[in-house]
Amino acid sequence: MSRVFNFSAGPATLPEEVLRQAAEEMVDWHGSGQSVMEMSHRGKEFMGIAAAAEADLRELMGIPANYKVLFLQGGASLQFEMIPINLLRGKGTADYVHTGEWAKKAIKAARIFGNVNVVASAEDKAFTYAPAQAGWKLDKNAAYVHYTANETIGGVEFQWTPETGDVPLVCDMSSNILSRAIDVSKYGLIYAGAQKNIGPAGLTIVIVRDDLVGKAQPTPPPMLDYKTHVDAESMYNTPPTYSIYIAGLVFQWLKKNGGVAAMERKNVEKSKLLYDYLGTTDFYRNPVNPADRSRMNVPFTLKDAALDEAFLKGAKERGMTQLKGHRSVGGMRASIYNAMPVAGVKALVDYMREFEKSHG
Ligand code: PMP
């Protein structure tokens, strides 16, 4: 059996080791006579799996004790709504940084619940850069400041953490969580769908500072209130048990492989391989400001879009899949999350070079 190099933006490639372990444990988890999927979420086996996953995530990200970790459902998209519902706290206005497709969706959702102040926007240059903080028009009375750490479609990533003083910083880390070291204490809330850097779809991680919980005005319906999930330790209703289990295996894999620091080094190496090559040719083009280029999602176009189909076909023949760019931008996109090996990126660059030679 041979696996492809899967460059999908999400759901995305997972570590082969994790998949093999899950396969081995599928029918009979640790002698329990059942698969994880069949366990009661309130039984001691699954409670142990969930507790270990949370402890490992806390260790990997250095999450301080005054932060709650929630394992929720509904994707990052539900968080676009839960964040204003819970964090506006009667203040009526929140600051958002507009960096592209995902920021736009977060802004649109927040506008249902309050006033959104777009403090900076990269729209003037087709969302190809991360606006420097010096130009942000922050409101001291805002309930929070929201930004998108990595624009999965545009391939724009913040290489720095904004400073917002006493105003809580809220971040969509869906596509770069655990890919680089961050200081969690600088944030009020971090959220991420699991299906890129963590595990299967269906699980959403929320890391929230405890003083921000339980202050929603008006009090939301229970499922939409962080307090419900904090009080019930993410077991208010049936959690996505199998996704939590796989996420837990990924966390163990991360720990075994040097943790976030080692992943960051590998991600720098992988993205550099691609960007360095892109810098040597005008056959392919990445439009993003070099200082703001994503280490996770590398969009690029071919000189002639008529070659796209041939490029994708050749890639597939060489065992490289899911390189087609997002429908809104066209071209190609290579998503190279933690689980993408260096060998996958080398194979891609070799192929790009070869393709350029034969079609340039
Ligand atoms: N934010 C970002 C940065 C994303 O990449 C995505 C999904 N691609 C989302 C939010 C939406 O996530 P979900 O599909 O989990 O709701």
Concise account of the structure shown:
The protein has 360 residues and is of the alpha/beta class.
The average pLDDT is: 97
Helix content: 25-40%
Name of the top-level CATH class of the largest domain: Alpha Beta
CATH topology of the largest domain, by name, is Aspartate Aminotransferase, domain 2
Total discrete domains: 2
Overall geometric form: globular
> What CATH architecture of the largest domain would you give?
3-Layer(aba) Sandwich
Largest sheet: 7 strands, mixed
Question: What's the name of the CATH homologous superfamily of the largest domain?
Answer: Type I PLP-dependent aspartate aminotransferase-like (Major domain)
Number of helices: 9
Descriptive overview:
With 360 residues, the protein is an alpha/beta fold. The protein is built from nine helices and 14 strands. It folds into two domains: 16-256, 3-Layer(aba) Sandwich (Aspartate Aminotransferase, domain 2); 259-359, Aspartate Aminotransferase, domain 1, CATH 3.90.1150.10. 34% of the residues lie in helices and 16% in strands. Strands 2-10-9-8-5-3-4 form a seven-stranded mixed sheet. β6 (150-151) and β7 (156-157) form a beta hairpin. α2 (44-61) packs across α6 (241-256). The longest helix has 20 residues, at 259-278. It is globular. It starts with a strand and ends with a helix. The mean pLDDT is 97.
